[in-house]
Amino acid sequence: MFNSKKKDIERKKKWMIEKLITGEFIATIEPPSSCHGAFWEHLLRIKRLNNEYPPFVKCGLCYEILLYSISNGTSTSDVPQTNYLFLGDFVDRGFYSVETFLLLLALKVRYPDRITLIRGNHESRQITQVYGFYDECLRKYGSIMVWRYCTEVFDYLSLSAVIDGKIFCVHGGLSPSINTLDQIRQIDRKMEVPHDGPMCDLLWSDPEETLGWGVSPRGAGFLFGSDVVSQFNQTNNIDLICRAHQLVMEGYKWHFNETVLTVWSAPNYCYRCGNVAAILELDEHLNRSFTIFEAAPQDQRSSATKRVVPDYFL
Predict the structure, then answer these.
(1) Which residues are marked as active site?
(2) Inter-residue contact 184 to 160 (CB < 8 Å)
(3) What is the DSSP annotation of the chain?
């Protein structure tokens, strides 16, 4: 009986991944199902700050990175061969936020030790009601229940990760309230993103060519300078801070003598910016390489998702 139920769960995971990886829309979602229960079991074991080990593929903002996988023939068999870390902002400002986030969740359930999801500032109830995910869920499913379940999952996502003790990964940046990695481990993350404080700063802050701390034009988080980065890295024995959160037309950008890296993985952002996107790859020795890619051609997107025409861009 137990083995039969376990096999049924595995089949359900595989079925969902295979549909989503080809861009198909899943018309019926049953969050209380056995697959949902398995995912909550994994979530309850997720730490505020994950310790990860190479080799690694690191992806910045994930708005529709799903389409890159489709256009390059990625299959479910590709995933277990390496580790993947996604730097947040899985939803909003795209036509396929539901499919993208559900695919990441399904991959996390099936390969919990291979997939790491870090929370971004858009993994928020307030932000998703403004920038599209709430409306997309309502339009595609006829109710907000899928949105509610997804926002519950947001509260359990990690705030950061450290690769091989040397690369600190976070969506936004640093905080004047955080000097050590241990302070991140003490944050109670199981809540809506607050308007200020250390948790907010990790998701909202940006590097700036200045010294010290500055007021962020975003209205949340801070601007932080090279001296702040130098002190944080020295205190925590970190070589590199890897983050997302800012559009980079070339896909990635170095800051402060290669001590901070911004990785942007959403090509042609908002369907009009014309930017390329990047993925950072790390081998077992933390040697770096980048994969640059453009948005998938329109004719490679599934007919199921093409029929859904959202009424928003931003």
Answers:
(1) 122
(2) yes
(3) -HHHHHHHHHHHHHHHHHHHHTT-------TTSHHHHHHHHHHTT--SEEEE-SSEEEE---TTHHHHHHHTT--GGGGGGSEEEE-S--SSSSS-HHHHHHHHHHHHHHSTTTEEEB--TTSSHHHHHHHSHHHHHHHHHSSSHHHHHHHHHHTTSBSEEEETTTEEEESS---TT--SHHHHHT---SSPPPSSSHHHHHHH-EE-SSSSEEE-TTSSSEEE-HHHHHHHHHHHT-SEEEE--S--TTSEEEETTTTEEEE---TTGGGTS---EEEEEE-TT--EEEEEE-PPPGGGS-HHHHT---S---
User: What whole-number distance in Å separates Cα of residue 246 and Cα of residue 204?
Assistant: 10
Token pair belonging to 175 = 């905080």
* 128: β partners: none
Per the CB < 8 A criterion, the answer to whether 67 and 41 are in contact is no
Task: Give the CA distances from residue 225 to residues 124, 203, 280, in Å, rounded to whole numbers and listed in that order.
Answer: 27, 17, 23
Instruction: Report DSSP letters for 21-55, one per residue.
Output: HTT-------TTSHHHHHHHHHHTT--SEEEE-SS
Q: Between the CA of residue 69 and those of 78, 104, 105, 116, what are the distances in Å?
A: 10, 12, 16, 17
Class of 34-306 per CATH? alpha beta
**Which pLDDT tens digit goes with each residue over 219-235?**
999 999 999 999 999 99
Structure tokens at 205: 């802050």
CA dist list (Å): 308 to 219, 253, 303: 33, 34, 9
Domain boundaries, the chain: 34-306
The pLDDT tens digits for 50-100 are: 777 677 665 665 544 444 443 444 444 455 678 889 999 999 988 889 988
Contact 131, 120 (CB under 8 A): no
